[in-house]
Amino acid sequence: MSTPSLLIIDDDKDYLELLNEALEGSFEVKCASNLDEAEKIVSDNEIFDIALVDENIGVDKGSEWIKGKVQQHAVATSFVLYSGLANEDAILKGLECGADDFLAKPFSLLALNNKLKKLIAYQNKIHTFESEICSKDRVINVSMAQASKYGSCMQLTSRLNNCFTLEKIRDEVFSFLYTMNLQGCIAFYPLNEKPIFYSSKNGFCSPVEIDVMKLLKIKPRLYRFSSRTIFNHSLCSILILNLEEGAIDTDIYIDALASVIECIGARIAFITYKNSLVKVQNKIEQAVKTTKKMIEISKHHQQEVMNEIVQKIGVSFHVLDLNEEQEDYLTSLVHNALKKHTQDDINFLEVTQLLDGALSSVSELEVLNQQQDEEIEDFDDEDELF
Fold it and tell me: Which superfamily is assigned to 5-131 in CATH?
């Protein structure tokens, strides 16, 4: 441990020499008999541990000089003012000027030595306390920064849950990477479709990036190599290119993105299901419309046939020479045919009503999808404001 430094200022050169001899065994002492000499010593040295200053230095006041230096954070870490007066005014001056201690002459040189050593011990305690505070502040700042990053990851997950296209998922992930100063790629592996690869830096992945992601797709959910990390899901992958080993934020990003990749995979599965449902919905709608049209054509055709039969039978009554029994028989045939036609009309009506109900259900599903999309847009607007 280095010897503490001490600056003594006193216009009494004999007393100055006495103080120097008494204290040089415990301190590295510099002496000045006036303030100009003290300023020169200060300019040639680093900050002293203690400045021991007489109140009366010629026409100058030591308390005023100390006050100026304390405000400038210059000369010394601690100041000690001493004076031949020990009245209340002198002690208050010592307090007001910013001195750490006040001594009244005459004082014991041994007591002075012990007092200055205690002041050094006091400085050490303050230094240790400040170091602990700085250390705690650093821990708090790191914790706050980490909490902020976790919060960003949670917000990303929330926003992903409101994405209904792969492009929207890509944009949300890349926005997060930009904010976190991360670079990477994302790959989508939609069912029954070709894989799609995007780069946060260039938009589209280079051939080597695509090859790497295809190669690492068979790796576990989390796989690290050098500063690169890939997060895998059966429906997607995220490759981060700059997660440095040992960096304070690396573990945060790894934990967060390991959850995010699961969220993205689940979202892609939902989007696939929804798109399939829409396709089925469209096919049902088309089939119902076609069936209704075919029923209308069939009804029209049936009516034409029945009209033709009735017309021809009616004409035959006048052409044929029929007895009463034969006319009754033919009349019965026409009546039964018309009765059957009426029942067919009822069946056609019931089928048409069922088809209309199916179309109504399809329309309701379309309205629900539109409302859901509008709610997502409103959510995005509010989230941006937040």
Answer: Response regulator (3.40.50.2300)
3-state secondary structure of 236: strand
**Residue for token digits 């069939």?**
298
This prediction's pTM: 0.47
DSSP string across 10-75: -S-HHHHHHHHHHHTTTSEEEEESSHHHHHHHHHHS--EEEEEEESEETTEEHHHHHHHHHHHT-S
DSSP symbols for 165-204? SHHHHHHHHHHHHHHTT--EEEEE--TTS--EEEETTTEE
Proportion of the chain above pLDDT 90, given as a percent: 19
Instruction: Let me know how many helices (H) and strands (E) the chain has, helices first.
Output: 9, 13
| CA distance readout (Å), 65 to 39, 48, 120, 142, 218 | 11, 15, 22, 42, 75
Where do the structural domains in the chain lie, given as residue ranges?
A: 5-131, 144-272, 273-385
Q: Give me the pLDDT at residue 290, please.
A: 75
Separation CA 48–CA 42 (nearest Å): 8
Query: What is the phi/psi pair of residue 200, to 5°?
Result: -70, -20
What pLDDT, on a 0 to 100 scale, did the predictor assign at position 140?
A: 52
Beta strands in the chain (DSSP E): 5-9, 28-32, 48-54, 56-57, 60-61, 76-83, 101-104, 184-188, 196-199, 203-204, 222-225, 228-233, 236-240
Place of tokens 């700059």: 242
Angle at 186 between CA 214 and CA 208, to 5 degrees: 45
What number is the average pLDDT over the span 321-328?
A: 65
Tell me which architecture the domain covering 144-272 has in CATH: 2-Layer Sandwich (3.30)
pLDDT at 239: 93
Per-residue confidence band for 367, with pLDDT thresholds at 50, 70 and 90:
low
* C-alpha–C-alpha distance, residues 165 and 275, integer Å: 10
Q: List residues bridging with 61 in a β-sheet.
A: 56
In whole numbers, what is the pLDDT of the chain averaged over residues? 78
